[in-house]
Structure formats: structure tokens, C-alpha cells
Design a protein that fits this description.
single chain, 400 residues, alpha/beta, FAD/NAD(P)-binding domain, six-stranded mixed sheet, binds flavin-adenine dinucleotide
């Protein structure tokens, strides 16, 4: 069977892969998207920062997303570790840095549906509902073998095939990988009090326990805890779990009612030692996996996708082959600092919570107090939390 040729192939139909395919298609590239349909909604949500929302607006997806998303206008951090140095709760408002909201929280299944529909309407994307089973690169590009035996020949493959990326492994890119003694319980709850569009994060000795607003009197919860405790909660009834959540959150949202499926995610980090190999570029969790702290994961994945669209458009305008080493180097340089900084900060915060070592408690408490009371530092950290310092990809600069 002759190979099917395509100027660019994207592998993976998660949010990072679909957004990469759309961003590149809108930049005028014809795309072979190798992506079996993703499983139905997990009941998990993602908080998307301002730049990610701008990108989704620029791609024409916002109308579908906005009615299902809740704005995150304020963020409250509460030290609930019982530490001697626990500072008072700190609240940060998006209006302090000139934004209506830090971001928007949406069910991952709703986001996935909106992306799937946009991909189906995009004439430049040919979707192959298959898995990629092989990847080889040579002097004139790459060949991707599909699970139905077909082969795609292309100068450049974008691997968005998730944290256990098969393509990353086939290309010989090594990873640094470690796990934490923690599991995240995820679920959606209803509550009797209004969340007032405030995301609330309790810092506990087992990890963060976070409520993120959804439309109406609903919030998504990410509750990071010891794996043995997560196992106990797997067996709890909805009523038992609701009562526990209400107690653990000091009833700040009133009565709690668990809704929908529960997810249990063991916490781990994966960091690819390189973001590219000949004829291959990594985006999303194929390049970096973090614990779900600070809502960084997909926001970084979308920045990968938007940056890639800029770099490949510039390469085409300059007449450079998309798989040229210079183009790969530009992507590595553009993404390294942002990915490295987020990985470092998430890991550090998580580790200081886990340790009951007094100097750590003191530093964390002093850090939060400084953030609460020093205006310029507050604003710097808020800005850095939602967007990386340095240049913003074009799709994330688009207005309204
Ligand atoms: C509890 C929790 C809360 C989170 N909250 C947030 C948040 O608030 N904000 C945020 O930004 N991020 C958050 N994240 C992170 C975010 O959910 C992930 O970063 C993001 O969903 C990953 O998307 P992805 O497309 O890179 O990977 P995936 O969603 O894993 O997609 C990879 C896709 O590739 C497909 N695939 C795999 N192998 C192949 C193959 N061989 N061929 C073809 N396809 C293949 C898979 O089927 C899958 O569809 C959270 C994560 C967790 C666990």
C-alpha cells in the first residue's frame, strides 16, 4: 500500500493534539491528524488561563465553551497544615492585574467535545481514527504506521500522544520521571452557598485541597491525599464522601453533595530531556506531566501548540523546511524556560507541603505573607502565574 503524504502529522486526540492541529490548520497547513476518539467525559475539569482563553477565542471555539465555563475572578490560599507559622488566608483578585478573570474552569469532556466538533468542521484536517503504532525518521522526513496498517509519510510529526508517549520513546527521547506519595481525588460537587467565582485552595500536609468554581452552585474538587486514604475513599458512599468534604473544607460552601464520577490520579512528574528529535516535536503531556497543582498542565500544552504555530509559520515564510534543525532549535529554546520554571515551582510547593520540617514551614509562611502584603511582588507573581515572562505567542495575544 503506498504511503499517504502530508505536510504535517499530529498524533493524539487529547486537548493538546486537537488544539495543535487546529492552530496549524488555521495557519494554512494541511494536517493528517492521527487520533482515535477520546473516551467520554471523566468528570474532571481544567482551569484555563487568560492566554489559553484568548487562543480558544482566536480559533473560534469560545462561543461553545463560555456558556459551560465559570470565570475565576479571585483565588484564596488557606494554610491548613497546622504549622506554627501558618499565615492568615491570602486572596488575590484578577482585577489587580487588569483582568476580568485569571481564567475559566470547564469540564474537560466539554472542552474535548468543542475541539472535536471544530476539528470535524476544518477542511485542512484529515482525521485518521487510528492509533500510531510506529514512528521512523530518515533523511527526507518521517513515516508513521497506523494501527490499520496504513502509513503516513511527512516531513514533520507533532507528538501529542500523552504522558506515556509512544512516539517520544520511538524517537529515543529520554525522560526524567518521578512519582509522589500522593493521589488526587477528582469530582464535581454541588453546594448550598455561592462560590462567588472564587477558587479556594487549602494547603494541607497531604497536599492541596482545591475547589474550583463551575457555573451555578457547583465546583470541581482536586483533593490531593495519601494513596491509602484515597483507597478508603474509593469505597465510601456519596453521602459519606460529601460529609467528609464538607468537614475538611470547614463548611465554607455550606452543605456539599457529591455529583458524577470520581477520578483517582496517582501524582507523578515526567520531563522530556529534549522537546524535539529529527522530524518530531513534542507538545502537551508528551513533553511534560505535572501534579495537578496551580492549574499548569494544559495551559502549558496550549502554549506549546500556539508557539509551534508561530514557529512553523515563520519557517514557511522564510522558505525553510519545517524539519530543519534550526526550526527545531527555535522550538526548544522558546519552550524550555517556561516548562522548566513551571515544573520547578509545582514540585517545590508540593514538597514543602509534604515536609513538616520547621524551616520549610517558616519559608512557606513567610512567602505567603510577603505575597499578601507586598503589592508589586503580588502583581508580579499573579502575572507570572497566568502567563510566562517573555514573548507571548500570536494566538494568545488576540483581543476579545
Ligand atoms: C486532577 C487533574 C487536574 C488538572 N487540572 C488542570 C487545570 O486546572 N488546568 C490545566 O491547565 N491542566 C490541568 N491538568 C492537566 C491537564 O488535564 C493535562 O495536561 C491535559 O489534559 C493533557 O492533555 P494532552 O492532550 O497533552 O494529553 P492527553 O489528554 O493524555 O491526550 C493524549 C491523547 O493521545 C492519545 N494517544 C496515546 N497514544 C496514542 C497513539 N499511539 N496514537 C494515537 N493517539 C494516541 C490518547 O488516546 C489521548 O487521547 C489536570 C490534570 C489532572 C490529573
Amino acid at each position: 500500500m503506498p504511503a499517504i503524504s502530508s505536510p504535517v502529522a499530529v498524533v493524539g486526540g487529547g486537548a493538546a493534539g486537537l488544539t495543535s492541529a487546529l492552530a496549524l490548520a488555521r495557519a494554512g497547513f494541511d494536517i493528517a491528524l492521527i487520533a482515535p476518539s477520546a473516551p467520554a467525559s471523566s468528570g474532571r475539569t481544567v482551569a484555563l488561563f487568560d492566554g489559553s482563553a484568548r487562543m480558544l477565542r482566536a480559533l473560534g471555539l469560545w462561543q461553545r465553551i463560555e456558556p459551560r465555563a465559570a470565570p475565576l475572578e479571585r483565588l484564596t490560599l488557606i494554610d491548613d497544615t497546622g504549622s506554627l507559622f501558618a499565615p492568615p488566608p491570602a486572596t488575590f483578585a484578577a482585577s489587580e492585574i487588569g483582568l476580568d478573570a485569571f481564567g475559566w474552569n470547564i469540564d474537560l469532556g466539554d472542552l474535548q467535545d468543542a475541539l472535536d466538533a471544530a476539528v470535524a468542521d476544518e477542511p485542512r484536517i484529515s482525521r485518521f481514527h487510528c492509533a500510531a503504532t510506529g514512528f521512523e525518521s530518515g533523511a527526507d522526513g518521517a513515516r508513521v504506521t497506523l494501527s490499520d496498517g496504513r502509513v503516513i509519510a511527512t516531513p514533520l510529526v507533532i507528538a501529542a500522544d500523552g504522558g506515556r508517549s509512544r512516539l517520544r520513546e520511538a524517537a529515543g527521547i529520554a525522560v526524567r520521571e518521578w512519582s509522589y506519595p500522593q493521589t488526587a481525588l477528582t469530582l464535581v460537587v454541588r453546594h448550598s452557598r455561592d462560590h462567588r467565582n472564587i477558587s479556594t485552595e487549602f494547603h494541607t500536609r497531604e497536599g492541596p485541597f482545591t475547589f474550583v468554581p463551575l457555573p451555578g452552585r457547583r465546583s470541581s474538587i482536586v483533593w490531593v491525599m495519601r494513596p491509602d486514604r484515597a483507597e478508603e475513599l474509593r469505597a465510601a458512599s456519596d453521602e459519606e464522601l460529601s460529609a467528609l468534604i464538607e468537614k475538611r473544607s470547614h463548611s465554607f460552601l455550606g452543605a456539599i453533595e457529591a455529583e458524577g464520577p470520581r477520578g483517582f490520579v496517582p501524582l507523578r512528574s515526567v520531563s522530556a530531556r529534549a522537546l524535539t528529535a529529527p522530524s518530531l516535536m513534542l507538545v502537551g503531556e508528551a513533553a511534560h506531566v505535572f501534579p495537578p497543582i496551580g492549574a499548569q498542565g494544559l495551559n502549558l500544552g496550549l502554549r506549546d501548540a500556539a508557539t509551534l504555530a508561530d514557529i512553523l509559520s515563520d519557517a514557511r515564510a522564510a522558505g525553510s523546511p519545517l524539519n530543519h534543525e534550526r526550526v527545531r532549535r527555535r522550538y526548544e529554546q522558546a519552550r524550555r524556560a517556561d516548562v522548566g520554571l513551571r515544573a520547578f515551582s509545582v514540585d517545590l510547593l508540593n514538597r514543602t507541603l509534604l515536609s513538616a520540617f520547621l524551616p520549610n514551614d517558616f519559608l512557606r509562611g513567610a512567602g505567603l505573607l510577603a505575597l499578601e502584603s507586598i503589592g508589586p511582588l503580588r502583581r508580579f507573581v499573579m502575572r507570572a502565574g497566568v502567563a510566562p515572562p517573555g514573548s507571548t505567542p500570536r494566538l494568545m495575544r488576540a483581543e476579545g
